[in-house]
Amino acid sequence: MSFLNSLNIAGSALTAERFRTDIILQNIANAQTTRTAEGEPYRRKQVVFEERAADFGQALKNEENKLTQGGVRATQVVESQQDFVPVYDPSHPDADENGYVMYPNVNTSEEMVDLMAASRAYDANLTALNVVKAMAMKALEIGK
Q: What angle do CA 52, 138, 70 make, to 5 degrees?
């Protein structure tokens, strides 16, 4: 595997984890949003990752894919189908006839754990990127 492919793999992981972090932060920011444009509480979003396959045959057919083989990408953002959390608050403007307000299905503790995991994965991929970069620099020094 060439240095360039290694850089692309680590770079794709950095991009995917950054996107995951953005979605997690969006969940935390909307943890108390009881009404969205759709008229219901905010639904927790999760990112689905997919491997970018390193298919040698496809690389031969499509020269563009040569530099983007391998790695990971975020393929979709799915909304959680968990039930909303009912809270009794008859004075809230979004309360139903029984006085219950439906709050988002976002658990901030779970989101914080996911945020830490995404941050650690980002750091690990950044370290891998720096190792590949250092190896490339050492390889350039061999010819001196």
A: 5
Please state, in angstroms and rounded to a whole number, the distance separating the CA atoms of residues 21 and 10.
Answer: 16
**Tens-place pLDDT, residues 30-77:** 999 999 999 999 999 999 999 887 665 665 565 554 545 678 989 999
DSSP code at position 104:
P
- DSSP conformational letter for 30: T
Summarize pLDDT for 67-83 with one digit per residue, the tens: 456 789 899 999 999 99
pTM for the model: 0.82
d(CA 43, CA 112): 17
Nearest to 38 by CA among 69, 70, 84, 1: 84
Q: What angle do CA 71, 119, 130 make, to 5 degrees?
A: 55
